[in-house]
Design brief:
Number of helices: 4
Structural class: mainly alpha
Strand content: under 5%
Distance between the termini: 77 Å
Number of strands: 0
Helix content: over 70%
Oligomer: single chain
Shape: flat
Radius of gyration: 30 Å
Length: 116
């Protein structure tokens, strides 16, 4: 054990390489599915680009601009819907905090009406 710590203290570059390797390994296992998704999306984009290019190379920039604008509008819609969803869930959470108090009030009133 002393030999390993002595070697690392003499050669700090080895320690840095080991730490970077461990970090890369951890990130790989954490984002493995995300990397796969990114690669699949990249393949789809390349296929669409190839289709537009083979269809008509002269009109390709127009079609790409049209596709980019369509993707931007779709992304904007998703952002707007997610903001609305966030607001709705926040209001629902506030209302759900008030429900137990309302139920207790109703129970007390029903007990009074029943004469208990």
């Amino acid at each position: 054990m002393d030999a390993i710590t002595g070697y690392i203290s003499v050669h700090p570059g080895v320690l840095i390489m080991i730490v970077v390797f461990i970090i890369i390994l951890i990130l790989h296992f954490m984002f493995k599915s995300l990397i796969k998704l990114a690669l699949i999306l990249l393949l789809i984009l390349l296929a669409a680009f190839g289709y537009y290019y083979l269809e008509d190379p002269n009109k390709m920039p127009e079609k790409i601009d049209k596709s980019i604008n369509m993707m931007k509008s779709g992304a904007n819609e998703i952002v707007d819907k997610s903001k609305g969803f966030f607001k709705d869930t926040k209001e629902l959470y506030k209302e759900s905090k008030e429900v137990p108090g309302d139920v207790n009030k109703l129970l007390k009133e029903s007990n009074k009406q029943a004469g208990k």
